[in-house]
Ferredoxin (Anaerosalibacter bizertensis), 62 residues
Amino acid sequence: MKAQVDKDTCIGCGLCPSICPEVFEMDDDGKAVAYNEDVLEGLSDSAKEAEESCPVAAIIVE
């Protein structure tokens, strides 16, 4: 499973790293980044929750 953040769409709300800090963090530009793109099996539920919770649908986890 892979995680990606569309930085053009991201508004920098910080919700994804609060839900799944093992995959997402806030970058120096104030927007989220998937610093661990390869989502480990035990983190798939929280990564998907972050994707579903994103207010602008900037996260793709597949």
Q: What stands out?
A: The chain has one domain: 3-61. The longest helix spans residues 44-53. The domain at 3-61 is CATH 3.30.70.20 (Alpha-Beta Plaits). The beta strands are 3-5, 24-26, 32-34, 59-61.
